Amino acid sequence: MTTVVRVLSFLRPYRLRVLAAIALGCATVAANIGLVAVAGYLIAAAALKPALLALSVPIYLVRFFGVTRAFLRYGERLVSHSVTFALLAEMRIWFYSRLEPLAPASLSMHRTGDVLARMVKDIDELENVYLRVFSPLIVALVTASAVAVLLGVFNLWLMLVAIPFLLLAGLGVPLLGRALAARVGEDLPHIRGELSAQAVDSIQGMQDLLIFGREASVRGRIAALERQSGSVERRLTRVAALQSGIGDFLAAGCATAVVTVAIPLVTTGRIGGVYLAFLAVMTLATFEVLQPLATVFPLMDRTRTSGDRLFEIADSQPNVREAAQTISAPLDIDLEFSHVSFAYNADMPPVLDDVTFSVRRGMHVAVVGASGSGKSTLLSLALRFWDVDAGMVKFGGADARQLTLDAVRAQISVVMQEVALFTDTLRNNLRIARPDATEADLLWALDTACLGDLVDRLPDGLDSWIGEQGLQLSGGERQRLAIARALLKTAPILALDEATANLDPITEATVLSQLLAAATDRAVLLITHRLVAMEEMDEILVLDRGRIVERGTHAELVDSRGAYWRLQEAQNELFAIT
Amino acid sequence: MEMTRNVARQLGLGSRIVAPAVVFGVLNTAALVAEMWLLSRVVADVFVGHDHVATVVPLLSLLALTLVLRAALVTARDASAGLAAIRARGRLRRRVIDHLLALGPAYARGERTGELVAATTEGIDRLDPYVSRYLPQTILGLAIPLIIAVAVLTQDWVSATLLLVTAPIIPLLMILVGSYAEGHIQQQWEALARLSAHFLDALQGLPTLKAFGRGKAEQATISRISHDFRDRTMRVLRFAFLSGLVLEFITAGAIALIAVTLGVRLLSGSISFERAFFVLLLTPEYYRPLRELGQHRHAAMEGAVSGNRLAEILATPVASPQPDNGVPAPAGPIRLELDAVSYTYPGRSRPALADVSLALPVGTRTALVGRSGSGKSTLLNVLMGFLTATGGEILVNGVPLSTIAPEEWRSRISFVPQRPHLFHGSIAENIALGGPEARLDEIEWAAELAGAMDFIQSLPERTTTLIGDGGARLSGGEAQRLAIARAFLKDAPLVLFDEPTSNLDPRSETLIRGALERLTQGRTLLVVAHRLNTIYTADNIVVLEEGRLVEQGRHADLLGSGGAYSRLHGPGRLVPA
Ligand SMILES: Nc1ncnc2c1ncn2[C@@H]1O[C@H](COP(=O)(O)OP(=O)(O)OP(=O)(O)O)[C@@H](O)[C@H]1O
Ligand SMILES: Nc1ncnc2c1ncn2[C@@H]1O[C@H](COP(=O)(O)OP(=O)(O)OP(=O)(O)O)[C@@H](O)[C@H]1O
Ligand SMILES: [Mg+2]
Ligand SMILES: [Mg+2]
Predict the structure, then answer these.
(1) What are the tens digits of pLDDT across the range A369-392?
(2) Interchain CB contact of B497 with A (< 8 Å)
């Protein structure tokens, strides 16, 4: 219930328009009932053959209701839908703003496709609360009571006989729905989320799936989800169908009952016979507003789940938070790790253990070490995707946690190990790093990353589409594009994580030398498992299981015959011709 | 925009599937006419004939009977229409997924994942109202008014004429309004697809966006796209509501017209009250299906738009032969011959592969080298059948690859892609991709050989550890080792490796090397590598340059000849440190 209340609370800024929509809704229903009921009265009255003049009021009313009903309904739909869709658009933006701080650390429990479904489908689902639950409920309540009162005005018995029918249709039928399909609708949003997650995973992993012949397993999983949702939906469909059958029965039944009760009243003259048709038709028309209530409970079930799914993410606390009081970014920028320890999980051994080093302007530092030794984690901490457990990451001497997140990220330009490109043009992918970059800037960055010729090869130059996540480029081209992008960003620190892993030796050497030349006035942190261009490093850190086990220049480290030397030996052996 | 008959049939959405719903709907209308007739009799008998309750009891009990009957018919109608929609959707989703799988990764890369996801989830769901409401209504919208018109005709031909005359105005106006809405609905679908595609892209690139300080700026884009979607939705709805207004207006006007004429004719005594009331009761029912047709038309047009998109996906031709018409892949060891194979990506002018002729004899190890972008991965994709060569021919043990059933062909290949995809699930599940029936010890054996066991052992839940979407909770090298373990687990005669160790440190690479050589013994191996020493010991080294095969031979020979290979791997470059 609280979820639904919370969803409804999003309507607060729109309350005037909501009220207007509800008022229009009631007026529409009144006009509808008025139209058919007065028409019934009209012909009954005409049958008594009065003077034509006596009929002029009902004739006028019939026309009036006929015209206003159409316009009222139009107005009601327009107002209510524009409120709803404005609300949904705002909720999407709100949801993104809540989600953004969570990535990547706190979002890693969720599947991307599932989060996508929340953002698209679950937010859409909320439209129901208002359009199909809240507003119809109020309209039904208002009009059904009005009709009951009107019946009572004619004769108390009429009201008394109608009320059970109204209650049954407006309350009994929905409750029957709840009893027969209690909470089955709840699972649908989850199933949809899973379907979406499965679709994303299967489409993006298609190559791997196909080569390992796992088509059947994808089909199987999707079929299983389909079966799950199918059984829920079939149940809901059957129940809804039964409800609409009963609803129709109650409507006609109530009209019949009202007529039956009215007959003796007419014969005894307590009600004018002329009103009999009026009463029958009015009662019949009233039930039209009760019909939509039948599905209120399954809709609420679904909405509640969808709301919960949204709030679950929106209410998550980001693991990294902006300090309450931030200091402005220092001017003299260097990156310093001071006795940093860190674990992704508290119950796991630390990934980094007492790591201390610094990178100053104009200085080139390399981090080498075995796979899994914690190299990439250094970058995640520098970017404050996670915060250290102990020690401190400092920029220009200031604790990174006291700077704003924006300030921290403005200091570092990165090439991440897993290159992420966007489904867009070459130009827009580059401009993420510097939105106001000129054409010359872009070409310079591409040239420095040895990618200048790509622009000539692509059909539309810089404006060429590079495909889903840039996958219409080769692996090495994607990596060089990421390097070009990092070069464009005007940050004092440049950090590269295995940025040349997919390049051939010639391209690798060229890229590295051009890059280091372009970054002479920057601080450079080069993470690599391959000992390339190590002579050009001012310092090399050797990381082993989260600890810095050796540090020094290439010459020093080779001389000392320690871990670094062994790494180099392994590399030499690997490349040696046997 | 109607879904054309052809598209509807292609998607399995012909009107046939709602035939039962239509039958129930027609029966319900017949019962409705009876109900209204009885009701009008009762009211008339009491009002005009001044009858007492007792005299109308038989009529009332008949009335109660029809009510029960109608309740059953309405239930049956709604249930059968709804169930037909669920069935049709399930069928369609299976077909679309099957077709996407048949189209393979090359197609998916040219499309936006988020859009494909939208089409296969929401796009198919949007067909629900189309099937369950609109489709039966297209027939009932004609049948019900006809039945009622006939019923009215038996009582009063003037009103029947009025009904028949006013009816065609409605579809005419609807078509007029609908044709305006058409383009807007198409745009609304595109806006939704864009929304979905963009969200997915942003979501997956969020760490990068944040690293570039664009996380907040992205909110502006999200806001623009969301508002755009809202505007387009509202534009569609405005048209839908406008056509609703027109419909309501006409039906209300018609009801008023009929009521007033009935009144006037009652005054003049040219019609009895009973008949007049009967006609009046039926009049709203006459227009109801037309009104509903108008209401559901909007949903129908939405369904048609996404239906057209689905039809488009289904109509994309699958290049390679289908499993049912391809010849089986040859059993046993594999020998490959490439004869002047060329490939040009769609929309690109330069070929990515040009006239590559190459032989991979049984049990040999071939290394494929070349500058970044020279076409190495493209060649592997052509060999796997994910891309169909635009020129030349590939022979598998003498049989043209283009005639071999793709699923079977792929079952003969083990592969480590340049950018392996790890699936949501556990470590064991990801390795077991290479052998779905593999026992745990076999999985651990493969992990051991791929050098992955040491880090797996350090995890609290070992092989059952969940690795997050795309292996987000693993380091780059750890993910790569899982991909290698997966390939080791698969026992296939042809082994294709695309830079399998690019993210591994020399020591891990050395560990794997021995296993790799042992496991590929007797198999045909093609490996793309820049530095692995497998290159130097390979039976044949193939050098690609801008899609052309410029050199091939053994290491020493190539180095001696001073050509492209010696430039790539010449002295001083072996260990560039
Ligand atoms: N998001 C995460 N959650 C939990 N554990 C993680 C996460 N990311 C990395 N790890 C673990 O932390 C350790 C260090 O990972 P990291 O990515 O820093 O290694 P690395 O030195 O960059 O290795 P590689 O050379 O393979 O890229 C690994 O054992 C990895 O499994
Ligand atoms: N899907 C695609 N659509 C269009 N062009 C593509 C596509 N995939 C690759 N290309 C282009 O074809 C060329 C060859 O790409 P390929 O991936 O085969 O190179 P590669 O030799 O594997 O390079 P790398 O070593 O960098 O991975 C490149 O110039 C690339 O831009
Ligand atoms: Mg790493
Ligand atoms: Mg490649």
Answers:
(1) 888 899 999 999 999 888 888 889
(2) no
Spell B253-269 as b/e; 16+ CB within 10 A means b.
Answer: bbbbbbbbbbbbbbbee
Task: Tell me how close the Cα of B536 comes to any Cα of chain A, in angstroms.
Answer: 6
The CATH number assigned to the domain holding A228 equals 1.20.1560.10
Same domain flag for A234 and A186: yes
Distance B108 CA to ligand 1 centre (A): 29
Residue with tokens 């590929």: B520
The CATH code of the domain that includes A513 is: 3.40.50.300
Q: How many residues does chain A have?
A: 578
Task: Answer whether B234 touches A (CB < 8 Å).
Answer: yes
Q: How far is CA A99 from CA A46, B226, B519, B577, in A?
A: 67, 16, 46, 43
The answer to whether A423 touches A468, Cβ cutoff 8 Å, is yes
Find the ligand nearest to A475 CA.
2
ipTM score of complex: 0.86
Nearest-angstrom CA–CA distance, A430 and B212: 11
Indicate whether A161 and A199 sit together in one domain. yes
pLDDT over threshold 90, residue A484: yes
CA B249 to each of CA A58, A69, A445, B242, B291: distance values in angstroms, whole numbers, following the listed order? 19, 8, 64, 10, 10
Residues A449 and A308 in one domain: no
The predicted-structure confidence for B55-111, as pLDDT tens digits, reads as follows 778 888 888 888 889 889 988 988 898 888 898 888 888 889 988 888 888 888 888
State the closest ligand 1 atom to the C-alpha of A369, by its place in the atom list counted from 1: 21
The residue to mutate among B111, B343, B344, B376, having the most atoms of ligand 2 within 8 angstroms of its beta carbon, is B376
Min distance A44 CA to chain B CA atoms (Å)? 7
Instruction: Considering every ligand atom shown, identify the ligand nearest to the alpha carbon of residue B477 and give its number.
Output: 1
What are the pLDDT digits (tens) for A30-81? 888 888 788 778 777 877 777 777 778 888 888 888 888 888 888 988 898 8
> Do A262 and A408 fall within a single domain?
no
Q: Hunting for tokens 């859009």 — which residue is that? A: B115
pLDDT tens digit sequence for B356-388: 999 999 888 898 988 888 999 999 999 988 888
Residues A275, A402 share a domain:
no
* CB interface of B with A, residues 312-341, below 8 Å: none
- Residue A273's domain comprises 2-314
Residue A170: per-residue pLDDT: 86
Q: Is residue A320 part of a domain?
A: no
Q: Considering only residues 530 to 569 of chain B, which have any Cβ-Cβ distance to chain A shorter than 8 Å?
A: 530-533, 536-537, 555, 567-569
Task: State how far the alpha carbon of B487 is from the alpha carbons of A329, B142, B324, B379, B384, in Å.
Answer: 49, 61, 27, 19, 14
> Are residue A262 and residue A349 in the same domain, yes or no?
no
Instruction: State the Cα–Cα distance between residues B39 and B304, nearest whole angstrom.
Output: 41
Residue A410 in domain: yes
Query: Does A482 score more than 90 pLDDT?
Result: yes
Count of domains observed in chain A:
2
- The per-residue pLDDT for A236 is 87
Mark whether A432 and A493 lie in a shared domain. yes
Query: Which atom in ligand 1 lies closest to the alpha carbon of residue A370?
Result: 25
Predicted pLDDT of residue B576: 36
Chain B interface test: which of A122, A265, A322, A575 (most B C-beta within 10 Å): A575
pLDDT tens digit sequence for A386-413: 888 888 998 888 888 888 888 888 888 9
Share of chain A above pLDDT 70, in %: 98
Pocket probe mutation, ligand 2, options A474, A500, A508, A511, max atoms within 8 Å of Cβ: A474
| Distances, alpha carbon B466 to alpha carbons A83, B430, B431, B478, in Å | 42, 10, 12, 13
**Does A319 fall in a domain?**
no
Flag whether A183 is in a domain.
yes
CA of A497 to the centre of ligand 3 (A): 7
Together in a domain, A415 and A526: yes
